[in-house]
Amino acid sequence: MSAFVFRSSRPHESILPRAHRDAHQRYLTYGPIVPMDSRPGLIERIFGRAA
């Protein structure tokens, strides 16, 4: 039996949130991908993200 102990600063996989493997599931959860440099229009600024 070995006395070697593995230590890592990364949390175990069982407690990390899983990334969406399906692009459609990500779309349903977060909506369409929006470029960071795009500016929201007047309606979006007033009402927030369109439902």
UniProtKB/TrEMBL annotation:
What this protein is called in its record is: Uncharacterized protein
